[in-house]
Amino acid sequence: MRQSAIIAALCLGLISAPAWACADIPAQARQVQAAQFRLIVTPVPAPIPLNKPFALDIRLCDGRMAEFPQLTAVDARMPAHRHGMNYKPALTKIDWGHYRAEGLLLHMPGNWEFSFDFTGAGKRERLTFSFDAQ
Ligand SMILES: [Cu+2]
């Protein structure tokens, strides 16, 4: 009886805990706070290179895993120049709240805005951060 209660508690803990320790955030990661979760984006390689392809490791933290929205698109554009990238990144879902975007390339120096589009619970949300490519 006692043992089964402990096992049940462990199972509940595993279910509600994030798949990834959100405390282990790389120094090169960018963080964006949303209403229901925190977005953590780590470039690979880091820092983001200019004129070379790179990937983004994308994780959701601090929320209930079961309520994490789906990441549907990742993009980057230069607001001042009104253009985007010349390549469309490929987005892969690795695990619940864990994604990888491949094939991004910033083809000129200056201010870029990264965007992350989420869909969940019948609503859409876009999170962004800016990056000065040099
Ligand atoms: Cu530009």
List its traits.
1 helix; single chain; mainly beta; 134 residues; binds copper (II) ion; 5-stranded antiparallel β-sheet; Immunoglobulin-like
Report on this model:
This protein is mainly beta and 134 residues long. Helices cover 11% and strands 49% of the residues. It has a five-stranded antiparallel sheet with strand order 1-2-3-7-6, with no helix packed on it. It has a four-stranded antiparallel sheet with strand order 5-4-8-9, with no helix packed on it. β8 and β9 (123-133) form a beta hairpin. The N and C termini lie far apart (62 Å). Mean pLDDT is 87; it is low at 9-19. It binds copper (II) ion. Copper (II) ion is lined by residues 78, 81, 83, 108, 110.
List the helices and strands and how they pair.
Layout: H1 2-16, E1 30-33, E2 38-44, E3 54-61, E4 70-78, E5 83-84, E6 90-95, E7 98-104, E8 110-120, E9 123-133
Antiparallel strand pairs: 1-2, 2-3, 3-7, 4-5, 4-8, 6-7, 8-9
The structure holds copper (II) ion.
* Estimated structural class: mainly beta
Q: Which percent band covers the strand fraction?
A: over 45%
**CA distance, first residue to last residue:** 62 Å
The number of distinct β-strands equals: 9
Return the string of H and E elements: HEEEEEEEEE
Short description:
With 134 residues, this protein is mainly β. It has one helix spanning 2-16; strands at 30-33, 38-44, 54-61, 70-78, 83-84, 90-95, 98-104, 110-120, 123-133. The chain starts with a helix and ends with a strand.
